[in-house]
Design brief:
With 437 residues, this protein is α/β, with parallel strands linked by helices. It is built from 16 helices and ten strands. The radius of gyration is 28 Å and the shape is elongated.
């Protein structure tokens, strides 16, 4: 006996509507709406839907005769299928049946997720179960709809073009660096920023954050730091904004002339405190990050998410091959960008072998790259270089004797345009990137 008799009636109604259709269009529409085998609780109804799925892949009709032929080993199948077909006269109400079944499926998923969440609060997987519960609830909040018509897509595209013309090209995340601003990184985009240790990946990320905070209309930002503490990141931001060396802030030996600069920097960040947020939780997986991101998106309308760094973000499921784990992470970062309608900049480590050759870095140099090259809309590489009038030497080892090394920024992938490169000066004392002259 089913928990809800309406479930039974709606299952029959949808299956009958599909069989009543002159072609397979009702089935196709139901699939795009979100109908699947899990929407059916009655065993024979699920089998009939699976038979329809088989017939559809072979481009055969989905009428009662064809369905019964697929399930001919089932006792009394012809009578059962004919009885279902006779339950409705037309396909007119198919969508009402389908939406009911989808909502009921979502309700069951929320119930299961809540039971997992409440079962054992001390369980190590408690955080993951909470994230799954939030995901199930978010799915319910999403509007069930068919694929948009072409005219709707064209209207949305036209409005987007008008916005671009109105803003005169001033679109996407404005980083304060021309080589990056030319990419016009927008919501839904994933940019990967790669480099070997000490090339300034985290520093460049914080330079971008500081530059955005100084804009007239700053984009709200969320930083996930899986390596450094939030205190360390804030200290670097204070150094960037105040012009006081990071080492002075670390050791506390601060000249009296610099104290007002530090107070001013703190006051500035306090004023902008609703515009940037730092989560410094180590051992975080994708679902936990998604949970944080949703909360901050809802509360602060986050437009940019920074992840430091990609290879430290754990997959939800443990896999035997590390590259598969990193591939799962990169796919999910792209999903976060699309689902939350924000830009994502993810930092990434490069292979040690990169330093053994005198050449610019390549996308394949990303450690455990997996599918990062395919998932990312933009891949940006940093390398320390020495330039003279004729040649450029790449991958120069970090040296304390070079206070302001030259960092070459390589755009090695641009899904929406051409690749490029530019030179910046890295002021290590202030962890600040400056324009190369």
């Amino acid at each position: 006996m089913l928990e809800n008799t309406n479930q039974f009636d709606n299952e029959r109604g949808l299956l009958a509507s599909i069989m009543a259709s002159d072609d397979n269009s009702i089935y196709d529409s139901a699939i795009t709406l979100g109908i699947s085998e899990d929407c059916f609780l009655t065993p024979i109804h699920r089998k009939i839907f699976e038979a329809m799925k088989t017939l559809s892949t072979k481009n055969r009709p989905l009428d009662e005769v064809e369905v019964a032929s697929i399930l001919q080993s089932e006792e009394g199948i012809c009578e059962k299928v004919n009885d279902i077909r006779a339950s409705v006269e037309t396909s007119l109400h198919w969508k009402t049946f389908a939406i009911f079944l989808i909502r009921e499926k979502q309700r069951r998923e929320i119930k299961r997720a809540y039971e997992l969440f409440a079962e054992n609060p001390d369980n190590l997987e408690h955080g993951e179960n909470l994230a799954k519960l939030e995901t199930a609830i978010m799915q319910v909040n999403r509007r069930i709809s068919d694929f948009p018509d072409t005219d709707q897509i064209l209207n949305e595209s036209l409005e987007d073009l008008k916005r671009r013309i109105r803003d005169r090209g001033d679109i996407g995340i404005r980083t304060g660096f021309s080589v990056l601003d030319s990419l016009h990184i927008q919501k839904g985009n994933l940019a990967v920023l790669g480099g070997r240790p000490a090339t300034g990946k985290t520093a460049l990320m914080l330079n971008i954050v500081a530059n955005i905070l100084k804009q007239d209309k700053p984009t709200p930002m969320l930083i996930f730091s899986l390596e450094m503490t939030r205190g360390e990141l804030v200290s670097r931001l204070i150094s960037l904004i105040s012009g006081v060396s990071a080492s002075s802030l670390r050791n506390g030996v601060i000249p009296a002339t610099d104290k007002d600069k530090i107070k001013s920097a703190y006051a500035f960040l306090m004023e902008k405190s609703k515009l940037f947020h730092i989560v410094d939780k180590a051992d975080m997986n994708y679902l936990q990050m998604l949970s944080y991101a949703r909360k901050y998106k809802q509360r602060y309308d986050i437009g940019l998410i920074c992840v430091d760094y990609l290879q430290l973000l754990k997959p939800v499921s443990k896999k035997s091959i590390r590259e598969q784990e990193v591939a799962e992470v990169s796919r999910n970062l792209k999903a976060i960008a699309k689902d939350l309608e924000c830009s994502v900049i993810a930092l990434a480590q490069l292979n040690r072998e990169t330093e053994k050759e005198n050449r610019p870095p390549r996308a394949s140099d990303i450690r455990e790259s997996g599918s990062i090259e395919q998932d990312a809309d933009y891949i940006i590489m940093l390398s320390r270089v020495v330039k003279d009038t004729r040649t450029t030497t790449y991958n120069i080892p970090d040296s304390s004797s070079i206070a302001k090394p030259t960092i070459k920024v390589h755009i090695v992938k641009n899904r929406h345009g051409s690749v490029d490169e530019d030179d910046l000066i890295f002021n290590k004392e202030l962890t600040k990137f400056e324009i190369y002259n």
